[in-house]
Specification:
The chain has two domains: 7-247, Rhopdopsin 7-helix transmembrane proteins (Up-down Bundle); 268-399, Arc Repressor Mutant, subunit A (Orthogonal Bundle). It has 16 helices and three strands. The protein has helices spanning 7-33, 37-59, 68-74, 80-95, 103-106, 110-130, 146-177, 187-212, 223-241, 289-305, 315-321, 326-337, 341-358, 367-373, 379-390, 394-399; strands spanning 251-253, 260-264, 273-277. Strand 1 and strand 2 (260-264) form a beta hairpin. Helix 1 runs antiparallel to helix 2.
Amino acid sequence: MIFQFGFYSSLLLITFSQGILYSLLLLRKGIKNGDKSNYWLSGFIFVCSLYVAPWMLGFAGWYDNQPYRDILFYTPFHQLFLFGPLIFFYTQSLLNPNFRLSVKSAWHFLPAVLYLLYSLGMWVYDQLIHHGYYFYADGADKDFDFWYQCCGFISMLVYLVLSIRFYNIYRRFVFQVTSFAESILFKWVKTYLVSFLVLMLLPIAFDLLGLIFPEVKTYTGSWWFFLAFSIVMYYIAITAYSNPVISKIPFRLSFFDSHPVMLLADDQHPETENVIAVEEDSIPVSDNAEIREWKIRIEALMEQQQLFKNPELTLSEVARLLQSNASVISKVVNQGFGQNFNDLINKYRTEAVIKCIADGAHKKSTLLGIAFDCGFNSKATFNRAFKKHTGRSPKDYTAV
């Protein structure tokens, strides 16, 4: 096999091989831990690695020699219609342990399948029927056709928007059903979505750069684009591999309605599902008699059993203790207290900390130790919640 080692081919070979390696490592990690999100990310990194292959192999002499030239021509290394669905399903499987690829979801891969058939059709006609170049008579790789690159960009943009929308709904959702929302917001999600956006914008950036420096648009100049693409891909791969994200709250979401989210019941009540209204930041307070009654019951439960001291308290647990369901309790918390569940529980925790400070506990223990005893699970969450409910930081509060 021909591979002419040089400055351009060797550097891309390093990033290409690292991409393939991390793709396999992520696949192995997914199999070992049973984490299906790693399957999707493994596929994404693999597709990114294939994207670099034509330029790497081109600089290695493949375009100048047969049969390697035909391999580059007829193998669709640029799977632009796969980037979007892979990142979208990775986002869903990362945040929702209940996510499964359904037959309906599989339709998202139809454009990629059609492009594969299109590529196969060109090979069949040229090699088996025409016995020469018909589709490739101009000597240009069809992966770089303008129509395909544009459609691929649009596809990636659509799925990026869908992924961001899914994450935003997830953020509002966990504030409604958990008391530890900030610990499962997963900053990594924002990181890889921004990185994916960078991958999308790189072609546009280099096209604009080519208006000032025409040499950037030459074959050799384009190498810098693929190197930049490889670096971003490598960053996503190594960061993802070292960032374990374990989602805890299963749910079902309809993209045709951004508000109701189905909170799946726990193992003890598998037959029930609860609709959770994902409200905006402003929650109207209701003085309905039924709401007032449930509000009193929740307040009594919190004061008597001090559930807020459980750092992993969920809406489902409160609903179970009240012999109700999560949908009803969520509505009461929203309309009765004018807050989401996370803020309500953190308010109780903050009040407990304030009581401890008033009793002089901060003179015998650290504020963070008191916060942990009252149910907070991190210093950052404690500081933010305390300032939100008192208007002052814990340090300033104790200094008064």
